């Protein structure tokens, strides 16, 4: 099915419908002369200027091709390194309830209940526990959220970030 181009449709609409004045009409005529017509293939477009040329009419001698001796510019692909990861670490204290730590791990770090309990016991027994590995900005945000929730609930829970060794 043929769909006429925008140019073909606009050329059929009287300019007075657009509220164009006489100076605007001359600008529209200039636009029509400059813009190539894209009517239905095989139809006669009598409005087309004879100075319009197809890209198939260009002479191949006009195209500059690189010589075998010339240097070619080659676009190098840049390899992006993945961002450095940081560990979000909870520090043990004797006052923060275990249930609160489990709740933090489930809510802020999307840990299952079993994973949260394992991490909480690791923090309790070893003194520290890794909650997750994140890019720097995310790790900072998670640590700040933990500290904020702990302060609001009057718990001395501490959370730090540390760069992951490769």
Q: Please, what is the average pLDDT?
A: 78
Helicity, in percent?
A: 25-40%
Oligomer: single chain
Query: What is the tally of helical segments?
Result: 5
Largest sheet: 3 strands, antiparallel
The number of strands is 3
Low-confidence stretches: 45-56
Proportion of residues in extended strands:
5-15%
Q: What is the spatial order of strands in the main beta sheet?
A: 2-1-3
Element-by-element helix/strand order:
HHEHHEHE
Distance between the termini: 60 Å
Structural features, described:
With 166 residues, this protein is of the alpha+beta class. It is 38% helix and 13% strand. The protein has five helices and three strands, in the order ααβααβαβ. Strands 2-1-3 form a three-stranded antiparallel beta sheet. Helix 3 packs across helix 4. The longest helix is centred in the C-terminal third of the chain and has 17 residues, at 136-152. The protein is elongated and about 85 Å long. It starts with 5 loop residues before the first helix and ends with a strand. 13% of the residues are buried. The model is unreliable at 45-56 (pLDDT under 50).
């Amino acid at each position: 099915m043929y769909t006429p181009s925008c140019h073909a449709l606009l050329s059929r609409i009287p300019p007075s419908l657009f509220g164009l004045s006489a100076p605007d009409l001359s600008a529209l005529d200039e636009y029509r002369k400059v813009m190539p017509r894209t009517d239905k293939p095989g139809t006669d477009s009598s409005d087309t200027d004879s100075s319009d040329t197809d890209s198939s009419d260009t002479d191949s001698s006009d195209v500059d091709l690189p010589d075998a001796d010339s240097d070619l510019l080659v676009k190098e692909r840049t390899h992006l390194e993945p961002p450095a990861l940081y560990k979000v670490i909870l520090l043990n204290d004797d006052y923060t309830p275990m249930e609160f730590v489990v709740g933090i791990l489930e809510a802020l770090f999307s840990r299952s209940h079993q994973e949260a309990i394992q991490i909480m016991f690791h923090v309790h027994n070893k003194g520290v526990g890794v909650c997750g590995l994140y890019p720097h900005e995310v790790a900072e945000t998670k640590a700040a959220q933990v500290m904020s929730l702990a302060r609001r609930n009057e718990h001395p829970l501490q959370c730090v970030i540390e760069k992951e060794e490769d």
